[in-house]
Design goal:
The structure is a single chain. By secondary structure, the protein is mainly beta. It is 9% helix and 33% strand. A hairpin with a 3-residue loop joins β2 and β3.
């Protein structure tokens, strides 16, 4: 399955790229981080936290266990990533629009 979403952001391509290209920045805004309370999850970064090949794994009470890897990083243009869920707990999600 492939999922994609496009959003217009009022910032320079350089600023957006720097935010997305370093996985350590994701902790500030990524939705998944809101699902576990403080202390309920562990994040472990790979050898790299930015650019192609950067990764982190997580293990959380509500988020389950998985890994995100940046598969392609083109400066100021795009960042592609793969996400793997290796263990998940049964839970219910609600979307509001």
């Amino acid at each position: 399955m492939e999922v994609s979403k496009t959003t217009m952001i009022n910032a320079s391509a350089e600023a957006v790229f720097e935010e997305l290209n370093d996985l350590r920045n994701w902790q500030e805004w990524q939705y998944w981080n809101t699902l576990d309370k403080p202390g309920e999850s562990t994040i472990t970064y790979g050898e790299k936290s930015a650019g192609t090949g950067a990764s982190y794994t997580w293990d959380g009470k509500n988020t389950g266990k998985g890994k995100i890897t940046i598969t392609e990083s083109i400066p100021n243009k795009s960042v592609a990533s793969d996400i793997e869920f290796t263990r998940s707990e049964e839970h219910t999600s609600e979307l509001q629009s």
